[in-house]
Amino acid sequence: MGQDEAGPWSESAVPFADHRDAHASLTSTAEGQDGLDPDRPDKPEEACGVFAVLASGQAVANLTYFGLYALQHRGQESAGIAVFDDVKVRLHKDMGLVSQVFDQEVLERMPGQLAIGHNRYSTTGSSKVCNAQPVVLMTRLGPLALAHNGNLVNAAELRTSLDHLAGEFTSTTDSELIAFALQEAVDSGLGWNAAIRKAAGRCRGAFSLVIGTPDGLFALRDGHGIRPLVFGLLGEPEQGQWVASSETCGLDIIGASFVDDVQPGELIHFRQADPIPERQRWCEEPPKLCVFEMIYFARPDSRFFGESLYSYRVRIGEVLARETPVEADIVIGVPDSGIPAAIGYSHVSGIPFADGLIKNRYVGRTFIQPTQAMREAGIRVKLNPLPDVLSGKRVVVIDDSIVRGTTSRKLVQALRDAGATEVHMRISSPPVTHPCFYGIDTDTQDHLIAARLTLEEIERHLGVDSLAYLTKGGMVEAAQAHSSHFCTACFDGQYPIEMDDEVRNSKLMLEPTGLAARV
């Protein structure tokens, strides 16, 4: 993959076709019974991952590669890295996984002291290479590179206010709009700090940002802190080598030590070799971390509120067992995110934990969709049950969520085919009854099974002997944090950020009639 230099920054990308994901179903079956696309994942889709390293004398592109590798679970559609070498920026981005987009040859062509990296799952803007990040623009103060995790709810309004720059747009993302708002603020005469605060003030929604400039690295979270962002030190503090990451697992992989979260509404300026960054609040709002980061999205070894998410997920399984006991022979978890909760359920219930489902560890995201014949034959791309474990057993199966119900239904049938005599499903989160507008793709409301059906109807649809969800109170209790500190809109419709009616109506397709009507 060659790199063609053009002016102060250069870009290299060899785009693939615009593919769709087809991996997440346990068993792909033909569309028909529920009218839903069988190849659309039956989980809330990931947010994006951002990563940045400011470290003179280090191979910052390689470090960022490993940081993005650790954050791969947050987005598998595209990956990109921009590296500052004094006033020049080299940018490489493409469709695919980090390991597909970058190799050692590419990374060696990206020397410098500051790198900005991004993994993408599309929320605003389709899955095309032009929408891959980071976004790199030129300003009167030199180049900027921006990577964004989240989603703006006023993107249309911001797009209209930047209409005079429309001829320069190269993508359809809200992330590019943030970058152009920042460029406009700088070109109006503001310095980097003031310009970033002004641009952020034009944005409404969820945005955790890392921004590379000739004056160092900036990290910022929206006022509610809906998407996570942390920072740490690489090497000794006096060296002033800084790392920012969506999750602490990104720090761990390169041996950086965790320092703190970028707080909700905070802007931090990291300068090369400065042992103390400049921290300031650019806005004041109540914190509203997305609770699904705790339940499902973030890696279990990432730390939130001073502990690993593995510990939290074990605890929600313990709460779930106290709230919804059942007589059974074994407890199994749906890999990977259902395993800790299943262990917790087993601890409290006394029912033995077992591995009843084996995950294909190398499936990643497959862009090859099964043929109709494969669907009818029951191709199992991701999970396979163990008859030796399941046969003749009453099984409690723990999963982290049910969104549309398509995968869960196939899972239940697979467990019965493997010999389970009873299947009791327990979900370690409340019913998902409302769509997310803040960076998670949870489909429109008319496709959310808990918004359409009652608990009894969902039981019949899935074919389970019993079904129970974790209560919202139990979910928050297990977090050992104040309930008001979380965004729980996907469970209760209480959206912390107001949005335009056009945006709201794009996903809120119906009046709640099922479980949603009881929330």
TrEMBL record:
Keywords, comma-separated and alphabetical: 4Fe-4S, Glutamine amidotransferase, Glycosyltransferase, Iron, Iron-sulfur, Magnesium, Metal-binding, Purine biosynthesis, Transferase
InterPro entries: GATase_2_dom (IPR017932), Ntn_hydrolases_N (IPR029055), PRTase-like (IPR029057), PRTase_dom (IPR000836), PurF (IPR005854), PurF_N (IPR035584)
GO MF annotations in UniProt: 4 iron, 4 sulfur cluster binding; amidophosphoribosyltransferase activity; magnesium ion binding
Binding site for [4Fe-4S] cluster: C290, C436, C487, C490
Pfam families on file: GATase_6, Pribosyltran
Pathway: Purine metabolism; IMP biosynthesis via de novo pathway; N(1)-(5-phospho-D-ribosyl)glycinamide from 5-phospho-alpha-D-ribose 1-diphosphate: step 1/2
The keyword Transferase is annotated on this UniProt entry: yes
The EC number(s) this enzyme carries: 2.4.2.14
Cofactor binding note of this UniProt entry: Binds 1 [4Fe-4S] cluster per subunit. Binds 1 Mg(2+) ion per subunit.
HAMAP family in alphabetical order: PurF (MF_01931)
Protein name: Amidophosphoribosyltransferase
Organism this protein belongs to: Cyanobium gracile (strain ATCC 27147 / PCC 6307)
